[in-house]
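Final report, Chapter 2: Outcomes

The project's central promise was a pipeline that accepts a single protein chain and returns its three-dimensional structure in a standardized token representation, suitable for archiving and comparison. That pipeline is now operational. To close this chapter, we reproduce one record exactly as it appears in the project archive, with the input sequence first and the structure output second.
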Amino acid sequence: MPPVGASITFVIPVPPSWSKKKKKLYHGRFHQSKPDIDNLQKAFLDSLMMEDKQIAHLEVQKRWVDFEVGWIEITLKEYDDVLDLPHPKE
């Protein structure tokens, strides 16, 4: 199985208590408060697969959205290329 990578975006709704102006301002911006991105990432991957050891590359982000509900967007990618690194001296 080739190495697999993923791009994951957690789209998190703004709190209903925020003003309309603040909701509009934050819509689409990076989410820089709790929950922590590493906790979201781990919970999401653990819920999808029993073994996530084949995941070789991961891009994760959190964004605010001015909707009542949030969602998770995921794009998977297989990597066939070998990274061109210098070889150790023999």
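Archive annotation: The chain has one domain: 4-78.
This record, like all others produced under the grant, will remain available to the consortium after the project formally closes.
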